[in-house]
Amino acid sequence: MPVPSRTRVVFLQHPREARVGVGTCRMAHLSLPGSQLHVTLDPDRQPALAEQLAAPDTHLLFPSSDATDVEALTRPPRTLVVVDGTWANARKLVGRSALLRALPRLSFRPEFASNYRIRREPDDHCLSTIEATAHVLERLERAPGRYTPMLSAFDRMVDMQLAYVASGAGASRHRRHKPPPRPPVDPRAPLRAVLDRLVLLHVEPNAWPYGTPDPPPVEAIELRALRVATGERFAALLAPRQPLSPRTADNLDVPELDIRAGAPLAATQAAWREFLGPDAVLGIWGYHALSLLRMEAGWTLAPELDLRAVWQRAFGRAENLPDGPGRAARRFAAIEKSLHALVTGP
C-alpha cells in the first residue's frame, strides 16, 4: 500500500542486488510515492543524482561509529538516502563515492526481529531494506504505525515464498548434496524462558493525523499492562502534554474531558516504575510502545521481548492489531489472546 512521506527517500541499489528476485528495495520504492530508485555503482558520475546527494539537509542511512541515532533528530531531513545491497556491497558503494562519504550518517536500533525469513541476515538485529525504511521514517516523522501498511506486500511475499518452498514445487530434478539437518529450534523458547517475569505492555498515542501542518509531537496517552505470572494489571490515562488530537478520544473510547483530567506524567511514571519492578521483561507487540515511551524522559523500561517476532517465527505472518473506535482496549485484548496462543498452542 503506497504511503506518502514527508521525507524524500532516494534508494541507491547495488547492481548485484537488482538481480535478486526476493529483494525489497523496489517494493519499498513503489510503496513511497515521490521516492527515487537508482541502480548504480558510481552515483558521483550521474550528474542529476550527484546534484541531489550534494543538496543541503541530505542524510545517509548507514551505520558507523559517528552516525547519529534517528531519535536524536528534532525534525526529519529533507532527503534520506538508503543504500540497498549485501553489507559487503553496500560498504563498497559508499566507500567509492565521495558524495556519500561526505553525508551525515543516521543509524537506528531496531526493537523487533526481521520477518525476512527467506534470506539470512548477517545478524539478528538486521532488517530488510523495506523494514528498515518504514521503521526509520516512523521514527524521523514521529508517526508510529504510519508506515506499517507498506510492509503488507512484503509479508505476503515472504509467506508465498515459504509456501512455495514447502510445497516442493521448485525442487531440482538433479540430486544435490545436502548438509546434515540442523537440530530443530523452538521459536517459543525465548518466551518460555521469561514467562514468569513477563509484563505485557501496550501504549496508545496522542497523535495528530498525518498531513496536519506542523503537528505537535506524538506522546503516550494511555498505558495498559499485565503481569502474566500473577494477573496483576496496570492502567493509566495520562493528561495530555500536547494539544489533544481529534482522534484520541475516539481511539480510547473515552470522553475528551476525562482525557484532559488524566493523571500527571510524573505521577504515572512513578506508579509505572513501582509496578514494573526490578527484574521484569516487557512483552511488546512490535516496537511502537517503546517508541512512544522513549519520546519523553522519565519512563522506566526493561529488557524487551517482541512477541510479534516470536509469533512470526512460530506461526508465520501476524495479523494487524484492530483499528477504529475503541481500539485501545481491543488491541490489548488481541495481544493477550496472541500471548495465550503462543503459550498454549501446538
TrEMBL record:
Enzyme Commission code(s) on record: 2.5.1.25
Pfam families to which the protein is assigned, alphabetical: DTW
DTW domain mapped to chain residues: 1-166
First-level EC class: transferase
GO biological process: one example: tRNA processing
UniProtKB keywords: S-adenosyl-L-methionine, Transferase, tRNA processing
Keyword Transferase attributed: yes
Any one GO molecular function term: tRNA-uridine aminocarboxypropyltransferase activity
Region (Disordered): 169-188
Domain of life where this protein originates: Bacteria
PANTHER family reported in the protein's UniProt record: TRNA-URIDINE AMINOCARBOXYPROPYLTRANSFERASE 2
Similarity comment text for this entry: Belongs to the TDD superfamily. DTWD2 family.
Identification of the protein by name: tRNA-uridine aminocarboxypropyltransferase
